[in-house]
């Protein structure tokens, strides 16, 4: 039985958001969004990243959605796997990258009070294998006259071991261009520390499972402490993902985590709301208030 895919932006990224049953949508759940990019059906939302201590707004992560003409806003988990299988992910990635750089230019031109240091954009192994990826990245930055360090490219751990030689070469090409590089969802893959030590990564993003796990046991806390220690030893900044409570934030600050991202601070924002945030409207952020009234 299929699930309703037409969710709000907030629901789309919430791990607790229920999906309603709707048998007629079975084909959509597995649909390849072929042509969606060229039809203008892709939209980019932005989740803020905050610096500790003090919850200082620092950057955005760009997150793609498919604005389906019938079923509404579809979260990426329902179409990215099919897009990767078909190769459409290359075109989707190009749209997300160009949209992000365009918004950076617009915010800069508007003399935004809280201009983000960068926007982080996810890149799959399929995109990075494509020989035109770095030239296309260079061209988009030039077209909007944006410095390369205004973009951060996020890769997952699995990318580090898939065609490692090609990936290392591609990452060094991007680093030479001047873009920031981050490893996403660290701890969920099987990356070799040897590869991690040879790649020019600037930021380690620690998966939400480890953030939540550090409250569950001493071992969970020890894993988080060891991970942040590894990042510091490799001279990487640390971003903790999926932060939801005040206690998590306090412990992460004590461990020396540099930045945080999660529903405690804001869910992903539509571009218009992200614009309000960078123009100085702190109320544009959209934190998820715990139903039980706690923190």
Please outline the helices and strands.
Blueprint: H1 9-13, H2 26-29, E1 42-51, E2 56-68, E3 72-74, H3 80-86, H4 89-109, E4 119-122, H5 125-129, H6 133-143, E5 151-156, H7 157-161, H8 164-177, E6 180-186, H9 193-198, E7 203-206, H10 208-213, H11 218-233, E8 237-240, H12 246-254, E9 259-260, H13 271-278
Parallel strand pairs: 2-4, 4-5, 5-6, 6-7, 7-8, 8-9
Antiparallel strand pairs: 1-2, 1-9, 2-3
Helix pairs in contact: 4-6
Number of contiguous helices:
13
Major sheet attributes: 8 strands, mixed, barrel
Helical content stands at 25-40%
**Overall domain count:** 1
Summarize the helix and strand pattern as letters: HHEEEHHEHHEHHEHEHHEHEH
CATH level 4 superfamily: EAL domain
Q: CATH topology, which one?
A: TIM Barrel
Radius of gyration: 19 Å
Q: Show unreliable segments.
A: 1-27, 291-295
| Net shape | globular
Q: What percent of residues are in strands?
A: 15-25%
Oligomer: single chain
The overall strand count is: 9
Class by alpha and beta content: alpha/beta
CATH class division: Alpha Beta
- Give the termini distance in whole angstroms: 36 Å
In spatial order, strands of the major sheet run 1-2-4-5-6-7-8-9
Label the CATH architecture. Alpha-Beta Barrel
- Whole-number average pLDDT? 85
Protein model, in words:
The protein has 295 residues and is of the alpha/beta class. The chain has a single domain, classed as Alpha-Beta Barrel (TIM Barrel). The chain has 13 helices and nine strands. Strands 1-2-4-5-6-7-8-9 form an eight-stranded mixed barrel. The longest helix has 21 residues, at 89-109. The radius of gyration is 19 Å and the shape is globular.
């Amino acid at each position: 039985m299929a699930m309703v895919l037409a969710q709000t932006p907030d629901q789309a990224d919430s791990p607790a958001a229920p999906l309603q049953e709707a048998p007629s949508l079975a084909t959509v759940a597995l649909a390849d969004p072929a042509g969606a990019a060229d039809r203008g059906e892709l939209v980019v939302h932005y989740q803020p990243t905050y610096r500790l201590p003090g919850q200082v707004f620092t950057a955005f992560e760009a997150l793609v959605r498919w604005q389906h003409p019938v079923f509404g806003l579809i979260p990426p988990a329902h179409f990215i796997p099919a897009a990767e299988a078909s190769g459409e992910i290359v075109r989707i990635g190009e749209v997300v990258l160009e949209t992000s750089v365009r918004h950076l230019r617009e915010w800069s031109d508007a003399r935004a009070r809280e201009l983000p240091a960068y926007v982080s954009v996810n890149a799959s192994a399929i995109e990075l294998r494509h020989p035109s990826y770095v030239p296309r990245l260079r061209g988009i930055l030039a077209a909007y006259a944006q410095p390369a360090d205004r973009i951060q490219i996020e890769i997952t751990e699995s990318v580090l071991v898939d065609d490692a030689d090609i990936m290392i070469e591609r990452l060094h090409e991007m680093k030479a261009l001047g873009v920031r590089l981050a490893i996403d969802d660290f701890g969920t893959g099987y990356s070799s520390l040897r590869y991690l030590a040879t790649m020019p990564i600037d930021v380690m993003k620690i998966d939400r499972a480890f953030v939540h796990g550090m409250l569950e046991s001493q071992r969970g806390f020890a894993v988080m402490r060891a991970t942040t220690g590894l990042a510091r030893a490799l001279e990487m900044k640390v971003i903790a993902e999926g932060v939801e409570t005040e206690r998590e934030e306090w412990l992460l600050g004590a461990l020396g985590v540099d930045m945080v991202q999660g529903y405690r601070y804001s869910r992903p924002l539509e571009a218009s709301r992200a614009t309000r945030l960078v123009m100085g409207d702190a109320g544009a952020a959209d934190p998820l208030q715990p139903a039980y009234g706690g923190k």
